[in-house]
Amino acid sequence: EWRTNTIRLFYQESVNKGIKLGTMLGKKLQVRGEDRTTVFNRQKIGKIDKRMISSLGFGNQNVFQFTELDSYKNANLHVSIDASGSMGGDKWDQTMVNVVALCKAVDMIQNLSIQVTFRTTSNNLPYIVMAYDSRVDKFSKVKKMFGGLGPGGTTPEGLCFEAIMKSFIPINNDMDSYFLNLSDGQPYFGGRGFYYSGDDAERHTAKMVKMIESMGIKTLSYFIGEKYDYGSYMERSFKTMYGKGAKFVDVTNVNQITKTMNQLFLQK
Q1: How many CB atoms lie within 10 A of CB 104?
Q2: Closest CA to 142 of 95, 96, 97, 100
Q3: pLDDT band at residue 227 using 50, 70 and 90 as cut-offs
Q4: Is the pLDDT of residue 148 over 90?
Q5: 213: helix, coil or strand?
Q6: Distance between CA atoms of 169 and 135, rounded to whole angstroms?
Q7: What 3 state SS string does 153-205 have?
Q8: What angle do the packed helices 12-28 and 90-107 form, to 10 degrees?
Q9: Does residue 185 have a pLDDT over 90?
Q10: What confidence tens digit (pLDDT) does each residue in 95-126 have?
């Protein structure tokens, strides 16, 4: 089905692939929702073990027990996607597969949540949209609508991060938090007498990334490009903006993103 009302679902095949991939990923992550309880008995401290009371008369002092609960912390993932025109083609197809996969996997795990934002320009202004928030949206929103989302416009980068920073979830004793950025180039935005590009835009984006990290949020930024992009000015620009969290993946290896998040989610 290629048409639902006025939305043309050009990328529905990528969404369907993402759902299959996410289902497999979610099954691997099921362990996150499991609590493991271990009882340590014959201890010198803890709650008294009624079964051991009779041995007190024989001088046994190790009649206590305690219970240890081993569980995963809650975790939140904010995925921000560069939806500029240069992300079209294979880049967008593969990005959509992996983002949908993450949404599907998180939907299967009780102690995970995810937000997905797309950033671009609209009517000569920077534009960012909260497309999905698992805390309030059902996964059916991804399944029905993400196939109609396509790239266009330019790359406002840090301007969009600044606009949405209040919605980011900082870490606390019960919550790990991750920020995952997917992009394919340096920032550029121009309009209405305003020009955002080059060194100034890179420094501003880097400043926004550091502000996100100051909230305790672990940032991961993937440069999604063709082989000829690497070693170029764009690679240097990307490292300037995203620092140690900058990673580079060929468009044919975007699945590395879901593998990395799988590993992070299973850390304690």
Answers
A1: 23
A2: 100
A3: low
A4: yes
A5: helix
A6: 12
A7: CCECCHHHHHHHHHHCCCCECCEEEEEEEEECCCCEEEECCEEEEHHHHHHHH
A8: 40
A9: no
A10: 999 999 999 999 999 899 999 999 999 888 88
Judge contact between 161 and 99, C-beta under 8 A. Answer: no
| DSSP for residue 49 | -
Exposure class string for 128-159: b at 16+ Cβ within 10 A, else e: beebbebeebebeebbebbbbbebebbbbbbb
- How far is C-alpha 243 from the geometric centre of its chain's CA atoms? 17
CA distance 253 to 226: 10
What CA–CA distance (Å, rounded) separates 25 from 217? 23
Bridge-based pairing of strands 218-225 and 175-183 is parallel
- Give pLDDT tens digits for 45-102: 667 766 666 666 566 767 676 555 557 889 999 999 999 999 999 999 999 999 999 9
